[in-house]
Amino acid sequence: MKPIQTLTFFVLVFLALGLAPSKSYSENSSDIIKTISQAENLKLEASKLGFEWTTTRILLADAQKALKTGNKEKANQLAKRAFNEAESAIKQAKFAQQHWNKSAL
Amino acid sequence: MIVSIGTKRLAELIVGEKNIMRSKAKALTISLAIISSISLQSVLANETWKKQNSHSRVAKTDNLNYSQIVNEDVTRFQNFFVKKFPNVEFEEFNNGVYAIDSESREQWIEMEDFPPYELAVDEGKILFEQKFDNGKSYADCFPDFKKGVRQNYPRFDQKTNQVVTLELAINQCREANNTTPFAYDSEEITAISGYLAFLSRGNKFNLQVNSINAYNAYLAGKRFYYSKRGQLNFACSDCHIKITGTKLRADTVSPGLGHPTGMPVYRSKWGELGSIGRRYQECNKNVRAVPFDLQSEVYRNLEYFQTIMSNGLEVNGPSSRK
Q: Nearest Cβ partner of B49 from A54, A100, A102?
């Protein structure tokens, strides 16, 4: 391979690697909006059970804010954390329903 | 020679394999025995628990002696604290953390020389004596106010099928006299409540649960008290039963017995008098759980449960706390 061909090859590889979207940026806005919406629904369910956490609504508000400013990676992370928290709050409510009496005097 | 060594090693390996197999079989047998034992214990414990707590779910019949069931709860609850703090007289538990923390108690006694809630009580008296537009007054709603009414609240109202706290009763009085109710976080309602508590000092709580609906409200409050919530996964009982008397950061955790007796409370942190509902909200926020509205059914039921647990203690509200 001639030096010029080698150079072109490496330049192309470098460009390809540099321009390729990383995993965290691969989520598109509609996926993030979907996660936020699912987290909102779970949060609502936790609230109806009386077990909503204060931190979940903060995460959701921050996720919305990050999405608006175009920081999709952050928005996606926050939305997923909110989803997990809301899910945990529901599990906590169900656990409490079944086991609260075990610690009662 | 090499073949001989190889054969010997192979034989050792086979024997070793057999030993390993025997060990594995032994381990498996022991594990199965342990698992069976644990399962059996768990089933037995579950059955015992079910028997002991047959009244812990929502009651559906009116044939049970609710008063007796609740009084048994009260005895168990109070005995726990009496045993936990053997040097504290039962009557002292209405002083909250100051019953168990001698250092804080000294500061509190000094603070009580010039009680920070005094102005609010005076304000409450003025408000209480004001007449409504129809000429009636709060005294028409609380005819026994001079003898003291605080010890009768919260009570279960059979007509409206709900727990009525003193704050709710004050607002019901206003509404019955065509007057706009106070906001539950207003200074006015807490001042009137403080004044009525002040007049009731020395009277003992002795709330009774005499109906299925009252019992279900009590049970809802009890369930809340023992349910873990919030991101920190804490129940009221975790702090005020399990770790009561120990330190949370710089503060001693108060015992659960006697919490409602000194309400409303002047907290230095708030710089004003506040209701027990406000304290519930604060506790919920501390464990990162979304709090409920003041005078929501949830908090009224919780107050009902907590006050019943303090039966036999004297009203000493309004009080002051750090």
A: A102
